[in-house]
Amino acid sequence: MLALLSDEPRYGFDLVRSLSTTGLLTSEGTIYPLLARLRKDGLVETTWRESVSGPPRRYYSTTPAGVAALGSFSAEWARFRDGVDAVLTSATRPVEGPRP
């Protein structure tokens, strides 16, 4: 979620739509509690903006603490991904038979 908000503020349904296209989220019921928790933890902040197509929308953006958390997560994710890749690579190598 923080990565989606790192470039520009976005409103809830826009985030739902972005995550849905990647197959990561299918329900609005999961995104709003997450956004509320990120807000409570000080990782995102909100502003209200008028909408031409309906009621005002709550836009979410990262705070400095959110940017730092995203950086930490990205580094940890890279280490995790590299570890999994190493295990998968070694598991798919052909097993050598006994040497004569």
Question: Could you characterize the architecture of this molecule?
Answer:
This is PadR family transcriptional regulator PadR. The protein is α+β, with helices and mostly antiparallel strands and 100 residues long. It has one domain: Arc Repressor Mutant, subunit A (Orthogonal Bundle), CATH 1.10.10. It contains four helices and three strands; from the N terminus they run αβααββα. The protein has helices at residues 2-5, 12-22, 28-40, 64-91, and strands spanning 10-11, 44-51, 54-62. Strands 1-3-2 form a three-stranded antiparallel beta sheet. α2 (12-22) crosses α3.
Key features of this structure:
alpha+beta, 4 helices, 56% helix, three-stranded antiparallel β-sheet, 19% strand, Arc Repressor Mutant, subunit A, 100 residues
Rg is: 20 Å
Shape call: elongated
Overall strand count: 3
The SSE order reads HEHHEEH
Number of helices: 4
Beta-sheet strand percentage? Answer: 15-25%
Mean pLDDT, as a whole number? 90
Q: Can you name the CATH architecture?
A: Orthogonal Bundle
The profile of the biggest β sheet is: 3 strands, antiparallel
CATH topology: Arc Repressor Mutant, subunit A
What is the helix fraction of residues, given as a range?
55-70%
**Could you tell me how far the N terminus lies from the C terminus, measured between alpha carbons in angstroms?**
55 Å
Read across the widest sheet, the strand sequence of neighbours is: 1-3-2
The level 1 CATH classification is: Mainly Alpha
State the secondary-structure class: alpha+beta
